[in-house]
User: Fold this.
Amino acid sequence: FLTPEKFNDLTVFQNEFADISKEEQVKRLHEMLGPHMLRRLKADVLKNMPSKSEFIVRVELSPMQKKYYKYILTRNFEALNPRGGGQQVSLLNIMMDLKKCCNHPYLFPLASQEAPTTINGSYEIGALTRAAGKLVLLSRMLRKLHETNHRVLIFSQMTKMLDILEDYLEGEGYKYERIDGSITGNQRQEAIDRFNAPGAQQFVFLLSTRAGGLGINLATADTVIIYDSDWNPHNDIQAFSRAHRIGQANKVMIYRFVTRNSVEERVTQVAKRKMMLTHLVVRPGMGGKQTNFTKQELDDILRFGTEELFKEEEV
Assistant:
């Protein structure tokens, strides 16, 4: 059935298909894989499923974020210098710091310690919001969505970012639930049941992308916000499928936040290209759970948008 004699040399297969850039390669792969695969899309099986629309929303860095972003780049100049030959592990660490900066500067201890607080020790809500372009946008969106009786799922890869979002929701008085990797078993199901209960007052459900990506039905929500995209785009697809599934009565709106002229924008472009190849060749998710970047891709991602950022100082 699997005809192992057709797939007996991994090196030959990789040499032919590692870099798919020609239509002939796609056709050849279809011929090889077609007898062994049956791809059924959700739209083919669930004819009455409401539609979904996804939007990439580009956000500007706040002044505080620009300061930290530039600091991270200049501090790591040697690793980022083409002649310096920065190691891939080092470049990944730099990229993680830049992604933190795009999410919220309070993810860095220094910014968090210097942040204005209230008498009870919580972050001052105005300063917390203004510190990050994404949170400024989220604040405006949630206000409108709350007024129009929508319910929202917010996904982030970072549990500390969920902590900041939790502080924001409490400061604004929004009722919410939360699931991340530390919440398991009965607590997890109880949070889902509370959110899905008829007449529930919870407006927002905070979820970590990996922990909230599988085995959860939150079809009572009709709006999904991907606060920061996962390295692997298939994990984001699993995440917003928590709302777009059996039981959903409304059209699902998906908003993916991407910081303009930053590592996020370039990662999104690279991921989109890889997704297109996946859809051309095999069903989504066949590859492993990790999206690995080459050193050349990492160099390109880290430098994306830096020229525009530093040009601002010269104007």
